[in-house]
Write the structure tokens for this entry.
Amino acid sequence: MTGKMATPQTTTKVAGPTILTGRVLSFEHSPFDTDPTDAARCHEAVALQGGRIESLGDLQALKSAHPDAPVIDYGDRLILPGFVDAHVHYPQTAIIASWGKRLIDWLNTYTFPEETRFADPDHAATITARYFDLTLAQGTTTVCSYATIHPASVDAFFAEAQRRGLRVAAGKTCMDRNAPDGLRDTAQTAHDDSAALIARWHGVDRLSYVITPRFSPTSSPEQLEALGSLWAAHPDLLMQTHLSEQTDEIAWVKSLYPQARDYLDTYEQFGLLGPNGLYGHAIHLEPRERDRLREVGAALVHCPTSNTFIGSGLFDMAARMAEGQRVGLATDTGGGSSFSMLRTMAAAYEIGQLSGTALHPAQLVWLATQGSARALRMGDRIGTIAPGFDADLVCWIWRPRPPSPSGPPAPTPCGRRYFPPS
Ligand code: GUN
Ligand code: ZN
């Protein structure tokens, strides 16, 4: 994993049957549960049909099974599942990597002013298209995004994902306090607008709605309660929020919710802790919080470039995995400093080193694909190359950089092919 640039070459729709040959990487086990060097197998070819993976194995065997299928030859290039980015804020695309602030000041200085602009549906549509262009170019085929408080920001995102045939999850961010004018809803409108968006989008094509209270400081207890009851009415939906990202934030939560046992309890007491819950960052957890998250089977989402860029702290991946947590990986665009899951994997490696454990490359690839897919409860559809899974595949070209005596080497072009279901 050398972090080379990927540039999109083509987007290809394949109705199938079609055979791709290359180095098709498929995980048979989680590399956190077995020796990471034994977790994955490389196959010679994969057959696609109707937007799904039909089979994988030797090229000759697949050709015999599908004598009329065209064969696309990718030589020795690596074919991976598309990356799955389990926590992003697509509306923060234009302010990614804004400098010099810690979380709360960063939100007030950069994020909230930019999110206010999403009252304009044209702005939402423009940024949505830019966001998907950027992330597909980095090999990411599924994201789970926060929108803004404006329902039209969800409409723009889902409409564009639908147009591109992507499997994505997203929700209207809910905030009724500690946010500027123009960026607050109420307990009632948060509930009702979210319910209307669920009815409009959830389960349409490849789209999933996610109930999205931003975090405890920007929701009143009444709003958390309203969203908890909405989730109770739709328990199959995901719910996403932020948890224990920075120590100042945790102290603020304590002052806002003096009765709560800890940060997680501000969600738990309102019905916002459950197996379909996604808790972004989750760095500075108390023992009770760790126990409860594991007991209910919630997912923690590691956002390594964000945690370093905003100065949040070191997520201890090895300890969380050892205690049996479900963990996904994410860019956290735009607190994170990159749209790239490759760069995010490298940052997770670096944070692992600072926490005392060198994560194996197989573990990093697994986290960016199957780990995140499992966090999103999509691990039976995407995130691995196996029969029956969606054919969201990415072909990587790894080229050594040419020697350059006279200056820095030119960026190395890589290629990807994306095969959305027809
Ligand atoms: N906590 C609440 N909102 C946000 C956000 O937009 N980004 C990050 N990194 N943390 C948050
Ligand atoms: Zn976030």
User: Anything to note?
Assistant: The chain has two domains: 7-81+385-418, 83-375. The longest strand covers residues 71-81. Residues 83-375 form a domain with the TIM Barrel fold (CATH 3.20.20.140). The pocket of zinc ion (ligand 2) is lined by residues 87, 89, 242, 280, 332 (CB under 6 Å).
